[in-house]
Amino acid sequence: MGIDYNELAKKYDLSRKENMGTITRFLENQPFSEETNILDFGCGTGNFTCALKRMTDASVYGVEPADEMRQKAIGKNTGVSFEKGNHEKIPFIDSFFDFAYMTDVIHHVPDINAMFKELYRVLKQDSSLCIVTESHKQIESRFWVKYFPATVEVEKERYPDIPEIIESATINGFVFSKIEITDANHRHAIAQNFLMLVENKGYSMFHLISNEDYERGLADLRNDYDKQVEIEYRHGETFLWLKKPVKD
């Protein structure tokens, strides 16, 4: 089973929005001004890209390989430049960006070494790269594993674990800065927007498990939603910060 990202784009914005907590973390860690060039690598339909443009005076650029995703982003008319590109070719000159980030993207990249080489090329010296992803431990702790256990191995095969990401980045010139982990640890009933996300297969992992596993999990999820069963949320995210060093 593969993922058709152009097909996924048709329903993507129905259930996927920017996470303002992530945006806030960028703003807390990075100085942005009118002279700042920001790259959203793998921007999808531009939710994070557009949010950063609204909240800063920086020039914000999105790069996305899937045509339908990119066209949806362009249609939002936010003054952001959206370009076709991928891990092998980011269509900008050397040393153009002051900051680059990717949110829930790295597991879609078939060759992270090629990606890091390109990101290193387009970033200025002393600039930062932030990768927002999940460790294998966090994947195992997702609350929806209760409903869709088949997603665990599927996702661990796709997601490079944090040490692997750091090793690849370091080999390709980056310097490790820090890791920030957001730990979700609370209980509440299943939210309607999450149920809608699952019904629309808004996470690509739902396209990679069997239809039987998906339908069984969805039925159990709907049942718990109707009963307002409280679920423990505890998986969180990992923010991996890297830097392109200044050359002597």
From TrEMBL:
Protein name from the UniProt record: Methyltransferase type 11 domain-containing protein
Organism annotation: Methanosarcina siciliae T4/M
CDD domains, per database record: AdoMet_MTases
Coiled coil, from the record: none
Start and end residues of each Methyltransferase type domain: 39-130
A molecular function (GO) term: S-adenosylmethionine-dependent methyltransferase activity
Tree of life domain: Archaea
